[in-house]
Design goal:
Shape: globular
Radius of gyration: 14 Å
Strand order of the largest sheet: 1-2-7-6-3-4-5
Structural class: mainly beta
InterPro entries: HIRAN (IPR014905)
Organism: Zoogloea oryzae
Number of strands: 7
Protein name: HIRAN domain-containing protein
Helix content: 10-25%
Number of helices: 2
Keywords: Hydrolase, Metal-binding
């Protein structure tokens, strides 16, 4: 699961710092089919993303949905989701952030999802 090892502190709502480790950076699958195009001008690099397990997804039992402020943006790619899904199923605290936004013609290159594990 570890494609990058980078420790960083992310602010929690109470203002305290929590240590998290960047474990994966992935493109966003399905950008062109969900809310990304509509919300593009509002999103910023570093924004929090909700990662939501969909174990009953009929297309992929390891599906992890990506949401921004409650709006579905797409999914972690099937090639990158199994380890994240298994850790989520174990109860491991997993968080997401927008790692990169770019105006590329290829929708797979427009948004990079950074996945963190809490310590």
């Amino acid at each position: 699961m570890c494609t990058a090892i980078l420790a960083c502190a992310l602010a929690t709502p109470a203002g305290a710092q929590q240590m998290r480790i960047l474990v994966q950076s992935s493109p966003l699958a399905g950008f062109q089919y969900y809310g990304g195009k509509i919300l593009w001008d509002e999103m910023r690099e570093g924004d929090r993303l909700a990662l939501v397990r969909e174990p009953d997804n009929r297309h992929d039992p390891f599906a992890v949905r990506v949401e921004w402020r409650g709006a579905k943006l797409g999914y972690l790619p099937r090639s990158d989701n199994r380890d994240v899904a298994e850790e989520m199923d174990r109860g491991t605290p997993i968080a997401g952030r927008i790692g990169r936004l770019t105006t590329d013609r290829n929708p797979w290159k427009r948004l990079r999802v950074d996945v963190y594990v809490g310590l």
